[in-house]
């Protein structure tokens, strides 16, 4: 069998791994979006024609965003994913096509074909050579195990082994000959705070600004982090550790929340119980609200409020509107959550920029910028523990991380796992598996 890294090799974005064995599978097919530019996986037309199946690990655009383009290139087969991923991907890809008009790799027709050809696969139900396991990253996210001619390959995609407010952590202790693992936080210096510390720091930052009658903007990935943040705020509002304050949900965060609720059976037991068997539904918090006027003036007129909106790295979405209006007032605060990719406005602000450009206009940054270190990815130690839990491991490929993280994590794993060959593949590299 042969494995080729067509994207996300020494980078984050455009995840795409080709497996050529008895059958030919593509594991993920994502976009790399940084600032205004977009990059695609290195898929040749002859590769597309050979494909027997395309597997989508989860709905984030860096794993799913390029998939409909395969249709445009002649792919007529199925796209395999879990049910929640099917619901979320529909929302995310339609939104992607509707906003970033200049740079599309496919049309609405291709998207519709993609949506019609989704094949839902439940966790831990093998079909052909493929089995999905929970990866703990977002609702519906899956690790993929492919078994071909007696060789087992496990692809983690985005991995979170830690239990969160909504989800159980990733399944550990699986058996595989070859592991393909992400390394977003693969450096030894990457050590997440405990969940308790993360929640406490978010609440402290929010409270500080509300006490001064400021507005808090929390830009968030529509899916995953957004729901985690809302649940944390809901919890602290209910226990009165935060003063009663409207929480505005703007953009896709709100729509995604509905999908989370509809897929309650995929959430962890405690949340499932609250939704299905009690009146204490965390998705129906009385403080959640949405802008009522088209120009959002009702939000701006509030004395104080929290705004949770997309996009998480400030690439686009309503957050840019709020920044334009609110960045000039030092009473306000922007709380960045989670990973900020190189080249994004979020990364610039994190690195201390006091000015950013939005729609060709220079925006002076006077509001406070802080970070709450929520993460939907495992940190270094958790990634090592996960790898050690895999039985029968002979070979590891490290990808989905900035170059330095992939290399450092590969070296570290090589040192820790005796007799296991560890590689950080370069973009476009192909390996034979035996
Ligand atoms: Zn992801
Ligand atoms: Zn990813």
Describe the structure.
The chain is built from 14 helices and 23 strands. The protein has 434 residues and is an alpha/beta fold. The protein has two domains: 2-189 and 376-432, Ribonuclease Z/Hydroxyacylglutathione hydrolase-like (Metallo-beta-lactamase, Chain A, 4-Layer Sandwich); 195-372, Rossmann fold (3-Layer(aba) Sandwich), CATH 3.40.50.10890. The strands form five sheets. It has a seven-stranded mixed β-sheet. Helix 4 (83-99) runs antiparallel to helix 8. The chain binds zinc ion (ZN) (2 copies).
Q: Ions, cofactors, ligands: which are bound?
A: zinc ion
The number of helices is: 14
Reading off the top of the CATH hierarchy, the class of the largest domain is best stated as: Alpha Beta
| CATH architecture annotation name of the largest domain | 4-Layer Sandwich
How many domains comprise the coordinates? 2
User: What does the overall shape look like?
Assistant: globular
Summarize the structure.
This protein has 434 residues and is an alpha/beta fold.
Features:
23 strands; 22% strand; alpha/beta; 14 helices; 434 residues; Rossmann fold; Metallo-beta-lactamase, Chain A; 2 domains; six-stranded mixed β-sheet; 31% helix; globular; binds zinc ion
Topology:
Layout: E1 2-7, E2 16-20, E3 24-27, E4 32-34, E5 37-39, H1 45-50, E6 53-55, H2 61-64, H3 67-72, E7 79-81, H4 83-99, H5 108-116, E8 118-120, E9 130-134, E10 142-148, E11 151-155, E12 178-182, H6 195-211, E13 215-219, H7 225-238, E14 247-250, H8 252-262, H9 269-277, E15 288-289, H10 297-300, E16 305-309, H11 319-326, E17 333-337, H12 345-350, E18 355-358, E19 361-364, E20 368-372, H13 380-389, E21 395-399, H14 403-416, E22 421-423, E23 430-432
Helix pairs in contact: 4-8
The chain binds zinc ion (ZN) (2 copies).
One zinc ion (ZN) binds at residues 60, 62-63, 158, 400.
